[in-house]
Specification:
Oligomer: single chain
Number of strands: 0
Mean pLDDT: 85
Helix content: over 70%
Low-confidence stretches: none
Radius of gyration: 20 Å
Strand content: under 5%
Number of helices: 12
Structural class: mainly alpha
C-alpha cells in the first residue's frame, strides 16, 4: 500500500470518528459529569477520541511497519531558541492577513463562531484557553500536519501544501471560518516544511488561537459582544467594505515581515525551498478518497449554510 493511499484511508476513518463523536456529544449529555462545563468537556472528549487516540493508533501501526519512533513519525524535533522567536513573530505577522480574509468572507457568509464563543463567556480563563487554543493547536496539528501533510510528501510540493490545508479549512464546517483556515493551513505547513518539526506549527497555532482567544474573552467579559445577531448576520456592504481598509494596509505592512520570517527559518534549518517535480497523484493511488471526503465536507457545510440562512 502506497503512502498516499494509507494516509487517505486514515483520513476516511478519522472523518467517520469525528462525526460520530461530535453527534454523540450533541445527543448524549450523560457522557459528561453532572454540573460539568459542557463546552470544555465536549472539546476534551472530541479531541481525545476522534483526534488523539486514532493518531496514536495509526502511529503505532506505522512504527511496527517502518521502525520509526513516535516522535520521529510525528516530527517532534527540538527547535532552537532563535527558531521559536521567528515562529512567534511569523504567527503575529500572519494574523492581519487571516483577519483580512475573515472580513472578506464575512461579506458573504454568516459568522457562526460568535454564538459558540458567547456560550464560553462565563468559563474561567484557563478553561477558555484550553478549549479554544491549547486543544485545537495540539490535536489539529497532530492530524493535519503530523499525519496528513507528512503523508503527502511523495506528491508535488504545491499539492502537499494545498490539499491538507484545504482539508483543514473544510474541517471547520463553515465557509466563513474555513476560508481563512485554509490560509492558516498553508502557513502551518510552510513552518513544518521550513523547520522539519511539528512543534513549529503547534507553537504558531497556539500563539494565533491564544491571542485571538484572549482578545475575545476580554471583549465577552466586558459585554462588548452582547449583540450576537449583529455580529453573526452580514450587515450592509458599505460599512463592511470600509472596515477592510485598515486590514489591507496592515497586511501590506506585515506580509513582507512574514515572508522574511519564513525565509529565515528555511535558511536557519537549511531546508530546501525548491518545488519538487513529482508525478501527479493518480486516482488509483488513493487520491480519489480525499476528493470524495472534500466533496462530502463541502456539501455538509453548504447544507448547514443554507439551513442557517433559512433560520429566523
Amino acid at each position: 500500500m502506497n503512502r498516499l493511499l494509507r494516509t487517505n484511508l486514515f483520513v476516511f476513518c478519522f472523518i467517520i470518528l469525528y462525526f460520530t463523536f461530535s453527534f454523540a456529544v450533541a445527543w448524549i449529555p450523560a457522557l459528561f459529569p453532572i454540573d460539568a462545563d459542557i463546552s470544555l468537556w465536549s472539546s476534551l472528549f472530541i479531541y481525545l477520541f476522534s483526534f488523539g487516540i486514532p493518531a496514536l493508533v495509526y502511529a503505532l501501526i506505522a512504527k511496527r511497519n517502518t521502525g520509526q519512533t513516535l516522535s520521529g513519525f510525528f516530527s517532534f524535533h527540538k527547535l532552537p531558541f532563535v527558531s521559536v522567536l521567528l515562529i512567534i513573530a511569523a504567527a503575529i505577522t500572519v494574523q492581519p492577513l487571516m483577519m483580512l480574509i475573515s472580513s472578506i468572507s464575512q461579506l458573504f457568509f454568516r459568522n457562526v463562531t460568535t454564538s459558540s464563543m458567547l456560550q464560553m463567556a462565563e468559563m474561567p480563563l484557563w478553561a477558555f484557553l484550553l478549549s479554544s487554543a491549547v486543544l485545537p493547536a495540539f490535536f489539529e496539528e497532530l492530524i493535519c500536519r503530523g499525519i496528513i501533510f507528512n503523508g503527502y510528501q511523495e506528491t508535488p510540493s504545491w499539492y502537499a501544501l494545498f490539499m491538507p490545508a484545504l482539508f483543514f479549512g473544510m474541517l471547520h464546517l463553515n465557509f466563513q471560518q474555513g476560508l481563512y483556515a485554509i490560509a492558516g493551513g498553508i502557513f502551518f505547513a510552510l513552518l513544518v516544511k521550513a523547520t522539519g518539526s511539528l512543534w513549529s506549527s503547534i507553537l504558531a497555532h497556539l500563539a494565533i488561537n491564544g491571542l485571538q482567544s484572549l482578545f475575545a474573552w476580554y471583549m465577552l467579559q466586558s459585554g462588548i459582544y452582547d449583540n450576537t445577531a449583529a455580529l453573526e448576520v452580514p450587515s450592509s456592504w458599505g460599512p463592511m467594505l470600509l472596515a477592510l481598509i485598515p486590514y489591507i494596509f496592515l497586511t501590506a505592512v506585515t506580509l513582507p515581515l512574514l515572508i522574511l520570517c519564513l525565509r529565515q527559518l528555511f535558511i536557519l534549518h537549511r531546508r530546501p525551498e525548491n518545488i519538487r517535480q513529482l508525478p501527479w497523484p493518480h486516482w488509483h493511488h488513493g487520491a480519489w478518497i480525499m476528493y470524495a471526503i472534500m466533496g462530502f465536507l463541502f456539501l455538509y457545510t453548504l447544507a448547514t449554510e443554507i439551513m442557517i440562512r433559512l433560520l429566523p
